[in-house]
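On clarity, I found the account of how folds are encoded harder to follow than it need be. What matters is that the chain and its backbone geometry are given together, residue for residue. The format is easy to grasp once an entry is in front of the reader. For illustration, here is how one protein appears when written out as sequence plus structure tokens.
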Amino acid sequence: MFFILSKTIYFLLMPLPFSFALIVLGYFVKNKIWRKRLVFLGTTLIIIFSNPFIANIAMKAWEGTPTPFVQLKPHDIGVVLTGITNRYKQPGDRVYTERGADRVLHTIQMYKKGIIKEIIISGGSGKLMDNATDLKEADELMKIFLLAEIPDSVITIENESRNTTESAVNVSKLISAKYSQESALLISSAFHIRRATACFVHEGINITPFGTDYYAYDRSSNFDDFIIPKASAIKNWEVIIREVLGIITYWLLGYI
């Protein structure tokens, strides 16, 4: 039940649907004062959410600062969370990565540098409806690691989890059985690393977070960013709001 709700109710609280709902509601309200207020509020929110400068400030605050490799201590395991592949694109003779490929690329770098000794890839499918014959995301990412000449003997697959809390539960069992609570590095997108870390800590794993795939940029903003609306700004807000709602939901359900 939670899995279905988490995929549907979030949509209703995203920036554009929420803003447009206020505007539409305003036209149905008989009171002229409230009609103007609702339309004004909805329009204002659209302007704010589509502003690149404001969105970048919010995203930088949410994601935090990347950790340099030289500041990382060696870890026994690197846990890579999935959610970055398109398994429904043909032809099927390759792996199609979407935004978030840094999760894999940075993991490869850390293995080559000796920062992590072994790798756990965690993630099955995050779709509401999935067939038993559909490819699992962890299996897809495994192909990329093998292409990078990382031995399959140091890679463990966990391909049954459908969300972050299930990944934490399933990976904790693997670590307890094989590694005896040795240290692990959790690798996920920076926007997601807060919720992911909370889930793994809740399961008693000695975890160190490592963010990748940063949405925010460090360069100074152009003048265009102050005045020209962009869809990417709305996307940033969608990411932040989804994660905030996810953290609140997980806390209410006792997952973190």
